[in-house]
């Protein structure tokens, strides 16, 4: 059996195991162990490589970024930062056409700069933004779709857990990946804003419940306005935290691990100052931080073992030769790769896609002449689209379960998020064709 056929068999076995409900880490380890055993006919070699992957998977200092950024994001969530940010954005954008939709994107952009987890953004703003938008005359489909769509900013704008996972798997600088995500992340947020304003202006029936809109507008004129002091009180803490973390990273003052530690400490101070750590909240945050972090680290150990198996099997080299022989060229390869990632996004979660595809694609991308930092931004953006596409769409199901409203169907949330998928595809094309969008700040 050729290397390519064997590689296809092993990758197919992995996908089948995941689709059957096997935990992704167990599936990765099982396929990797079985693959090495079959290829080398040596069970001891499989055990040694598993031991090396397990040790290297947690021994590196850079892995401390994972629990630190998770801790920072959870502390920010428990400190009601998302609610405060949305309230300020709502006050500032009240008179903009589709202003609450724009406010949701703006608040999600700020929230993304300190959380790094799209699911957290979806959960927070479902509670905060959807009821407020519906109360102000927006259609529920548009409100839920906006929350789900803008939640993807949590994985594009640094810090980002997907960037960390990609950086570890592709052996790239996490600090550079964070910086590379800044322009594409804010470009994506700006594109969402433009789309919302255009929809509200030219397709108002898709955005508003027109029967209630006039009454709501009349009532809005009687609402008290938020003063500058109140706005500052809500925004200054989070602005300082964003400046501290991203400023320290961009200036080179902090390593990613140090930035995570300082950010977590700053988030702890904010939550403590707002007296949000009582009633067992601190223990819940610590417990969830441990659960999330251990889960990610186990996945990374499994993915490292899987990557070693692919190297032993010669799969990346065989696929690279196939791509060259087919005459696809760099962008032909990129088109096929993105298509596969988008397809997998319909059936798998983001981390699973990265764990399966990065060990295969990164060596090929290098041979094709791609900068792996630029390739990582493309990968994360493509993977994030999968959060909004049926039937899996984990952001959609997060909004649905958090909203807990039987009158709002999953199908309607998917429909509301589809315009955001279209915008993301356009931004993905721009980032792929113009590498400087992701590399300008890195060099």
Please describe what this structure looks like:
The protein is mainly alpha-helical. The protein has one domain (3-439). Helix content is 80%, strand content 0%. The chain has helices at 3-19, 24-40, 43-59, 65-78, 81-92, 99-115, 118-135, 140-150, 153-156, 161-170, 174-180, 182-202, 204-207, 210-220, 228-251, 256-273, 281-313, 315-326, 329-345, 350-367, 372-385, 394-403, 410-433, 436-439. α6 runs antiparallel to α7 (118-135) and α8 (140-150) packs across α22 (394-403). The protein is globular.
Question: What is the typical, i.e. mean, pLDDT?
Answer: 82
Low-confidence stretches: none
Taking all Cα atoms into account, the compactness measure Rg is 22 Å
Main sheet properties: none
Secondary structure class reads mainly alpha
Query: Helical amount among residues, as a percent range?
Result: over 70%
Distance between the termini: 44 Å
Number of helices: 24
Q: What order do the SSEs take from the amino end to the carboxyl end, as H and E? A: HHHHHHHHHHHHHHHHHHHHHHHH
Q: Indicate the proportion of strand residues.
A: under 5%
């Amino acid at each position: 059996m050729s290397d390519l056929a064997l590689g296809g068999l092993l990758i197919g076995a992995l996908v089948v195991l995941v689709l059957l409900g096997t935990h992704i880490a167990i599936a990765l380890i099982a396929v990797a162990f079985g693959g090495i055993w079959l290829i080398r006919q040596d069970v001891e070699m499989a055990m040694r490589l598993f031991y090396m992957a397990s040790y290297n998977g947690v021994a590196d200092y850079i892995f401390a970024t994972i629990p630190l950024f998770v801790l920072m994001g959870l502390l920010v969530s428990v400190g009601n930062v998302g609610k405060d940010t949305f309230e300020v954005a709502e006050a500032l954008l009240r008179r903009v056409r589709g202003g609450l939709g724009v406010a949701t994107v703006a608040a999600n952009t700020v929230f993304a700069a300190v959380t790094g987890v799209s699911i957290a953004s979806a959960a927070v703003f479902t509670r905060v933004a959807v009821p407020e938008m519906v109360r102000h005359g927006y259609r529920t489909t548009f409100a839920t779709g906006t929350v789900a769509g803008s939640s993807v900013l949590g994985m594009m704008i640094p810090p980002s857990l997907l960037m960390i996972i990609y950086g570890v798997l592709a052996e790239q600088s996490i600090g550079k990946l964070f910086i590379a995500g800044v322009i594409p992340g804010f470009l994506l947020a700006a594109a969402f804003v433009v789309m919302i304003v255009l929809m509200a202006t030219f397709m108002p029936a898709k955005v508003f419940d027109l029967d209630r809109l006039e009454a709501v507008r009349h009532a809005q004129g009687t609402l008290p306005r938020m003063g500058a002091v109140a706005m500052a009180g809500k925004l200054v803490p989070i602005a300082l935290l964003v400046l501290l973390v991203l400023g320290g990273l961009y200036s080179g003052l902090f390593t990613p691990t140090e930035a995570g530690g300082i950010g977590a400490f700053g988030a702890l101070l904010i939550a403590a100052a707002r007296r949000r750590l009582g009633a067992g909240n601190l223990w819940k945050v610590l417990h969830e931080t441990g659960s999330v972090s251990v889960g990610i680290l186990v996945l990374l150990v499994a993915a490292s073992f899987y990557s070693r198996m692919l190297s032993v099997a010669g799969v990346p080299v065989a696929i690279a030769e196939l791509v060259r022989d087919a005459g696809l060229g760099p962008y032909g390869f990129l088109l096929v790769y993105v298509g596969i990632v988008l397809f997998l996004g319909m059936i798998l979660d983001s981390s699973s896609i990265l764990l399966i595809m990065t060990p295969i694609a990164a060596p090929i991308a290098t041979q094709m002449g791609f900068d792996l930092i630029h390739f990582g931004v493309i990968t994360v953006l493509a993977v994030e689209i999968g959060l909004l596409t049926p039937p899996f769409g984990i952001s959609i199901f997060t909004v649905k379960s958090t909203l807990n409203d039987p009158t709002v169907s999953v199908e309607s949330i998917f429909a509301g998020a589809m315009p955001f998928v279209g915008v993301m595809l356009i931004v993905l094309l721009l980032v792929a064709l113009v590498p400087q969008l992701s590399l300008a700040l890195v060099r």
